[in-house]
Every structure is written in C-alpha cells, then in structure tokens.
Amino acid sequence: MRVPVRDLGRSRLIMSDGELRPYNPAAVARALDDRGIPTTAAARIVDTMSRWVDRLGTDVPAYLFDAALESNIKALAESVDDSPGPKPNGNARGETAGGTETGTTTGEKPKPPERKPGGGLGDGPQPSDAPGPVHIYGHHIEITRPLVFVPGILGSKLYRKRVGHAREQIFPPSPMVDDGWKSSFQRLSMKDHFVPAGPGEPMGLTDGAYDELVAFLTGDLGFKLNENFWIFAYNWMESNKDSGQLLAVFINDYILAHHPGWPSVDVISHSMGGIVLRAAIKIGDTRGQPAKVGRSMYLASPHYGAPKSYFFLKPDVPILGGMASSFLAEAAWKHARDQGEPGLEEGVKRLARSCRSVYELLPDEYYFDEKKTIVKVNTAFYSNDYDVSGLAATYYTDPNSKFDENQIPIVREAMDFKAQLGKQLPGDYRVLYNQDVQPTNDLVWYIIRTAINPYSTGFGQPFDSGQHGDGTVPTVSGQGPGGTVIPGPGITHCALPNVEPTFEQIVDYLFPNPKGK
Q: Which of 106, 176, 271, 322 has the fewest Cβ atoms within 10 Å of its own Cβ atom?
C-alpha cells in the first residue's frame, strides 16, 4: 500500500558533488514500501521528514538527510511491536528521494564516520592504537569522546553547482578568478543556491581562518580528522536556526548513530558558530531531540548580538575599512584590500543584507536589557537629544532608527529565534572572550539637520561607547551569562581561536585531570 505524501518540489537535497536535486517524498515512500515497512509507520516517517525539510529554509545535504531518515526508521521500528513484515533496517532499494535509481534513499551511498577495525575510536581507544602518554599544559591528554568544530560567519567555503559542470568555489574567490572578492560578494548577494563542503573534506574552512586551531587539535592533542574530530561546514548565509538543526542531525544521526560507544560529543564554536550550536541543543534534530553535546566551548561568540550587524544592515549607516574588516576573517580582508578592489565595502554591506544569519546577529532583548541603546538622535537643541531605547523602538517604531518596511518581518523573525534560544547557555559550557582589545563600535548618532544644525541629516560614523570588546563583539555580548577573559592586546575577534591562551583553556576544559592524577 502506497503512502500518501505532500508535494515539496521546491525543497532540494545537496548531493556529494554539489548538485542540487529536488526532494521527492513520494520516492521516499516507495523506498520504505520496498523495505517492507508497515504503511502506518512509513507514513509517519515520510511526514516527519517532509515537515522537517519543508520547515528548513535551506537546502539539505544528502548525507544528513540519509542519516536523519535512518534514525527515524529506527525510532519508529522500536515503537511498533506488532507491526507485520520485516523490521526496518539496511538501505532502501528502488527510486531515491532525488529521483534516481541507486542504493539509498537520496541517490548516494552513505559514507558513515570512519571506524577502525576491531571497534575503532567509536568504542573507545583500542590497546593497539593507544599512543604513549601525552601531557600538555600540565594535563594528561586521553581522548574519550569526539570533538566537533563549528566555524563562524564566512568561516566555511561555499560552492555553486552548475548542471554539467564541476562545482565552482564562490567564497572565498578562487585565485584563478580574475574579478576577485567584489564579484564574489555580488554573486553571493544574488541568493543563488550555494553549498558548503561535505563531510570528510578537510578544506571546508576558509583558508587562513582557523589554521593554528586545527593544527593544535590534530597535531598537539592528537585528534584525527573524520575519525574523532569533525568540522561542521555550513552555509553561513542561511538562518542559524536551520544550520543548528542540521548540526543536531550531524551530531545525533551521523556521528553518534555510527559510534554507539560515544554518548555525546564535545563542541568548540567560534563567533556565530556559537549561535548555531545553541540552536542545535535548544531546537534539536528532525524529532526535536537536542544535539547530544557533553561540553560546549564558545570562542568570541556574540551571545546577545553585535551592534555592527545593525550598521551593516542599515543601508545609510556608513562603515569604515577597519569596521568592514571585522566582518570578514582578517586574512581574507587583507587579501581583498591588497587587490585594491573599488566598492568592496558596499559589496560587503549588500552581502550582509542578503544573509538571514546577519539579522540574527542583531542585538537582542538581552543586549538592550544591559546597554539600552545603539542609536542616539541629535536634534537642533542639545536638550532634545535622546537615546532610542529598547529593541522595539530601535528596530520597528522610531522614525530615525527603524528598519525599512521590507526588512522588519525578517528582523521580527530573527528576534523571535533569539528569544527562543533564551538568555542562558545550555548544558555544560565555557565562554572565552576578550575585552579592551581595541575600539568596538557599538553606538551611532543620527543627526537631524535644521537651520542651526549645518550637518546633513542621517547617520554619523559608528563609534565605541566605552564598553570595548574584541573589535567585533562588545564585552556585554561576548561574556554572555559569564565567561573567561582571554588577555592580550593583539587577540582580536578573528585571532582568538588561534592563540595559545585559548589552547590552554581548551586543554583545561576538555581534559580536566591534572598530570599525575
């Protein structure tokens, strides 16, 4: 008996070669039927997967769809005791979710996380694999559960797939592309379908952004990429809510489902990656199950938002070169500026306005509870100057600071998402941030021109109100509900993941047993 399904033709699956293939729920239903899964259970599986894909605002990597589907099959099979026919197991046969005939539901053979013979790292260290004792910063290093790294905005490479062609790297621009960064921002702003690197691709991170961190984790600490250490590359243009749900599937259904010896993973996140991580824990996977995270590290994460996102999203707020550089990985910005490309800063602003994720970096209600304002209004008479106070006035009602009408619905949705995350961080965590490093722009004047006020009406240059921060995230947001300061005058927002004081904190948190104990 066939399972009734809804039409979700606009949803897409990202295949391993970058091709975007329409999601076909009817094909999933046929595959489940071929596997002998009872009609009632199959209908529930198809409905769960279809609602999840439909709810996401982003394309779904095929390997994550496969992993989530298998977990749903397993969960429903365990709940149906008297179901006739064989238990759901193995890979689906027949037509795939992508509409081709192959061995899996998405048209690709699943590539589960690698395991070594005899149980491998997934079931704990094997005697033959165990290295000699390693001690770093006075701590004994013994890896007992896997680690996942979640980069920040612009931290993952993005590609575009054209039919009949190899995938093309869009961000950062390839050295072989003559039109460079300005063209890259323009193409990203067009909101084409872009895909991150898939699992097992070690080059999924933006070049130069996290080289020292990855070298420390894999070289000094001994983590092995795609065995007990994974990098979660994602499309940072999309909503962090969607990326968080994909991260939850990545952890629960892709990593842990293939390694029953691991009850959870540890996660290190940088910048906006911290919001993705919080969404993974708070919102969860296809079944609403929170990501199984044991310990979380947040490096320079804008927990309550960053005013610079407001300055980038407002078309009429001017930005300086140094301010634009903090939006990018510093290495990327240096390369772009060295090329002498005109109009680059406006390209960055245009790109920001096309990213839902940047709206979710706006200061939220918890930020305004602490700092009250990000906009001051200057009138003809100084006695009438005022602070635009609170989230609602700043974004929705004050005529001098509010967003354009076409932006307000996106802002409301973003703030609803931040409210869903809440003020407190979930689970066992450690926050690392910096303060007093360099001016961190968090305030801007709006000047009203009158007969006695010669300045043009509009926004002035953003400036630091005095709270400082790491150059991108102001102190009140970086510290969140409580954190550890990483000292050092040269440790800016982009540098913090790659410096020795951060490495010491990673060891202290993930390997808490002192040497000799």
A: 176
